[in-house]
Amino acid sequence: MTVVSAPGKVYLFGEHAVVYGEPAVPCAIEKRATVTVEPRDDGHVRVEANDLTLNGFAVEYADSPNDRPDVDVPKRLLDAATGYVDAAVEQAREAADAPDAGFDISVDSEIPLGAGLGSSAAVVVAGIDAATRALGEPLDRRELADRAYQAEYDVQDGQASRADTFCSTMGGAVRVEGDDCTRLATPELPFVVGFDGGAGDTGQLVAGVRSLRDRYDFAADTVEAIGDIVRQGESLLTDADPDSDPSAELIGELGELMDINHGLLSALGVSSRSLDTMVWAAREAGADGAKLTGAGGGGCIVALDATTETETSLQYTPDCEQSFRAELATDGVRLEEE
Ligand code: PMV
């Protein structure tokens, strides 16, 4: 039995613009997906999803997606568990040169699905790592990140950047610009997350921004303006001492850039009433800044606040179902048990 975990992430800056070659800075957070893998001889794959923050279920199927049983769970949940796990299995089989390998796979995730916290990337990263280790062919982190990106790319019909999968593999704060991915040394940041209980449709939201960008110059300019915000934020981060607590001035400046980034994402049509409500609740509670994280349309916001005010205020905000402090996950993918 091989057990591997990988973290989710928040976008400090840069989602959507990263799709068009601008840089982005996602940060891994201590909310993990844990994947347990046991090879099996019959070539079948059995997936059990235990704590996907929604109802658990189990399905067993052979190689072909057409062989899947007609189970009584929402398609979105079934796709989430099986689509990404299938893609991870394919990558692991290819990497280990074991095309007929079968597995019992169990997924336990603390990361809400489709809510902008990188749940699918964490499952794919942990899944490929666990499966290749179980086959005796562990990958180095660069190859793991590459293969995880390929898996997401396949499932999302090409609508994926390297941001989520690289961040989940490496941990910490990272910078992604096209194929160029690096880790950034940053101080611990006081992240607070608010979750509206919903989810956005990443493919649809990315397509919406693409269409605006094709039709209006303002949208292309907005995407570039987000790139400028990311570059400014990144230089603030790299100038700071990674081993000390961040200064109030740094948090204030990063927060201001987050507020602007949220406004630009709103202009691109990817915010929602509940995301805006949570962003304003955070700001009114004294957060240094707040923005949606991920594709938008619903899901999560991220705020910076070293005090408990934002977390408490979000708990009493009707549009917010859950709020929590999220520590930077300095470990990326991690072997838990072998
Ligand atoms: O909502 P998430 O965590 O899947 O993030 C999507 C981020 C986008 O920039 C909109 C798309 C991408 O693949 O980078």
From TrEMBL:
EC number: 2.7.1.36
GO CC aspect terms: cytosol
Single annotated GO MF: mevalonate kinase activity
GO BP term, example: isopentenyl diphosphate biosynthetic process, mevalonate pathway
Cofactor(s) required, per the database record: Mg(2+)
One Pfam family, short name: GHMP_kinases_N
Superkingdom, natural source: Archaea
Every Galactokinase N-terminal domain range: 3-39
Catalyses which reaction(s): (R)-mevalonate + ATP = (R)-5-phosphomevalonate + ADP + H(+)
UniProt-annotated binding residues for ATP: P112, L113, G114, A115, G116, L117, G118, S119, S120, A121, A122
Residues of the GHMP kinase N-terminal domain: 84-172
UniProt keyword terms in alphabetical order: ATP-binding, Cytoplasm, Isoprene biosynthesis, Kinase, Lipid biosynthesis, Lipid metabolism, Magnesium, Nucleotide-binding, Transferase
Major localization listed first in the record, in broad terms: cytoplasm
Family: Belongs to the GHMP kinase family. Mevalonate kinase subfamily.
Main function: Catalyzes the phosphorylation of (R)-mevalonate (MVA) to (R)-mevalonate 5-phosphate (MVAP). Functions in the mevalonate (MVA) pathway leading to isopentenyl diphosphate (IPP), a key precursor for the biosynthesis of isoprenoid compounds such as archaeal membrane lipids.
Record's subunit section: Homodimer.
Name used for this protein in its record: Mevalonate kinase
Native organism: Halonotius terrestris
Lineage: Archaea, Methanobacteriati, Methanobacteriota, Stenosarchaea group, Halobacteria
Gene label: mvk
